[in-house]
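Quick one: structure tokens for this chain, please?
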Amino acid sequence: MEILNSQNFDEKISTGTVIDKFFANWCGPCRLIQPKFVSWANEHSEVKCFEVDCDASPDIVARYSVKGIPAFGVFIDGVFQSLNTKVREFDSLIKKD
């Protein structure tokens, strides 16, 4: 899964529905949820899924007030929708028509 940074973040979230997982390499819960997130992303090609390394991109973390990880930011056409830290089902992050 592609890891976004300050140089490509805005471009990558600019169109469609996007979920960004905020993580850190040292975070145990981040590592535990990774396989489930990757599997979900592979099954939902209509949603673009990326990651943001909180240690490498503190400016993005600050912009969205990420206080705990893993956290999942939802964007639609570049507009921030929500930030969620307690996710049991990824389907709950996106609105259904």
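Residues 1 and 38 are 7 Å apart (CA to CA).
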